[in-house]
Protein: Fis family transcriptional regulator
Amino acid sequence: MKLTKTNQKIDNNICKALTIACESSLHDIAGFVWLTHRANYTNFPASLVITCVFNSNDDIEAMKAQHQDEQLRLTIQKQLVKVGVVVKNIKQSVHFDSEEACQQQHRGEWDTRLALRVIKQKPNAGKVH
Structure:
């Protein structure tokens, strides 16, 4: 499904905000490697799902043990607000995953893995970008 010009602009702003959040977090959080997002723009921003990817499940556990999950969510939320995207429940919108888990469960196929996350969140999510 092609995005409308308005939704494309929102999506571009989200990409810019998340790139800044990602770049700063790469240096601060051990094991963090990248992040991505998906959204159904008919139910935005409630449908926004941000997935923060770590090398391993152990990296996720270590990050949570040091309460860096809160720091990462706050960094993401601050950057989104700067581009006019207000997420009511950032804890619900930001998920953590690992290359290790994707490799084990989906043979490294991130598109398949991420599509499942959106469907679980909103049964009628429709096609996402």
